[in-house]
Write a structure and sequence with these properties.
mainly beta, Immunoglobulin-like, 12-stranded mixed β-sheet, 6-stranded mixed β-sheet
């Protein structure tokens, strides 16, 4: 008679990890036949791959857990490893935090301490164990959590009128509370697996129990009354919220199985971050408008440089205060980086222009510097019937043509800041004034003639 003795399958979970800043390559060293792998990276992300490559959510200290199970013999094993994750230094603020659990008068608490440096002037917000937006150093009561594998996070946020509210950095830390992963597959365990599939319309999370399936209801919090998800495998689509910082979601399961005397509760915290999120533009104005010069009936333009997606509103001050402009009449581009003014008239000289920049989705506001319009004419009113100058604008020279000149005249040319750049005494009906060597700009020509000072402006291109 031949006796066959079947050996019990052995499961041993093990792995190594190599980090390149926040990107970590895991090598699975587990020993198991008919193997089933489940990774929990401690940052709200999971994987069923054998050798995953994972990009962590931000800098922090994370407890990475690998569950291994033989799908035939049902033996299982767990391996855990704490990992300190850093990101390349990309700005002055370097976040850091510590978290501690303590008991006071029979109740458990968690306390988060801010240890960052270089984050001066930034606001700090702590999210931990279901509580959000509290200040570092305060404590959060853990009553009612049972068992939990969740996270603490400090967010560093700046606020100003130009950039608005900007998420700068964050630091995360895994918080295992009464968590015993070695018992996750026990008959009374309420622990469960989850995996998130990020779709354009939302994050689709799939849940299934790790231990007994006798009581397999999953409860999703954060949407009013907890939402029950019934079934061996259940799904829930989380909408994208809270922009770059993500939405803190708590999911729990309670296993109350009288057949085995079970009453166990397990909770996990997930951070749903929208991979399609694009940060709103700031109200930064990189290039400010400068004064513009146009000639009679000509065109003037004012320019700024702002971020795509920001909203622009050009304004004019004609002496009665600032007024919003509209794309009508001589104005175009009033909601763009370039304001164009057509058919400029002489009485518009010294009108002021500026641009107001705001940004949708960002509480910011910025006002450009003020630029002034100058409208030059070829013939001043006082000199219209006595002489004219041409061409205007000019390049190398202008010609002064008198209508009736019998007396000599002293001609002077002044630049835009009032400095004398040329003078000469002339007599006769035609005088050519050489402009060679003068930079482009607006100039004033004066003629002292028969005790009068006649003025005319011209532009050299």
């Amino acid at each position: 008679m031949l006796t066959v003795v079947a050996g019990r399958s052995q499961c041993i979970a093990d792995f190594t990890a190599v980090a390149n800043w926040d990107t970590v390559t895991f090598t699975n060293l587990s020993s198991a036949t008919n193997a089933y792998f489940y990774w929990n990276f401690g940052d709200g992300s999971t994987s069923y791959e054998s050798d995953p490559i994972h990009v962590f959510i931000e800098a922090g200290t994370f407890q990475v857990t690998l569950h291994v199970r033989d799908t035939v013999s049902l033996c299982h094993s767990v391996h855990q490893q704490w990992m300190s994750i850093s990101r390349p230094l990309d700005e002055v603020c370097e976040p850091l935090m510590t978290a501690s659990l303590f008991n006071n008068n029979g109740s458990d608490y968690v306390q988060v301490i801010d240890g960052a440096f270089g984050c001066n002037g930034m606001s700090r917000y702590v999210d931990c164990m279901g509580g959000q937006n509290w200040a570092p150093g305060n404590s959060h009561n853990l009553t009612g959590w049972g068992q939990a594998l969740t996270m603490a996070r400090i967010r560093y946020v700046s606020h100003d009128s130009i950039a608005g509210t900007v998420f700068r950095r964050a630091y995360y830390r895994t918080i295992p509370y009464n968590q015993d992963p070695a018992s996750s597959y026990n008959i009374c365990s309420a622990d469960f697996e989850y995996v998130i599939d990020y779709q354009p319309g939302g994050a689709v999370a799939t849940f299934k129990p790790l231990g007994s399936s006798a009581a397999d209801t999953i409860w999703v919090s954060g949407f009013g009354n907890p939402i029950p998800l019934v079934g061996q495998v259940s799904t829930f689509t989380f909408p994208y919220q809270s922009g770059h910082s993500g939405k803190w979601q708590n999911v729990s399961r309670r296993n109350r199985d009288p057949n085995y005397g079970c009453d166990n509760r397990q909770a996990h915290t997930m951070i749903i971050k929208n991979p399609y999120y694009v940060a709103p533009p700031t109200c930064l104005i990189d290039a400010q408008p400068v004064d513009a010069v146009a000639y009679q009936d000509g065109i003037a333009q004012f320019f700024i440089s702002s971020q795509p997606g920001s909203l622009k509103q050009w304004q004019q001050n004609a002496g009665l205060g600032w007024q919003d402009l509209f794309d009508a009449g001589p104005f175009s581009g009033v909601h763009t980086d370039t304001l164009t003014i057509s058919n400029c008239q002489t009485w518009w000289s010294n009108y002021q222009y500026r641009c107001i920049v705001t940004a949708p989705g960002n509480n910011c506001h910025n006002t450009s510097t003020v630029a002034v319009l100058t409208v030059a004419v070829g013939i001043e009113e006082s000199a219209r019937d006595l002489f004219k100058i041409y061409p205007n604008p000019a390049t190398d020279a202008i010609t002064l043509q008198w209508n009736n000149a019998t007396e000599p005249a002293l001609l002077r040319v002044f630049d835009a800041v009032g400095s004398l750049v040329k003078s000469e005494l002339t007599q006769g009906q035609t005088t050519i004034i050489d402009l060679t060597g003068l930079p482009p700009g607006l100039y004033l020509l004066t003629a002292d003639w028969k005790g009068k000072e006649l003025r005319s402006r011209f532009i050299k291109q």
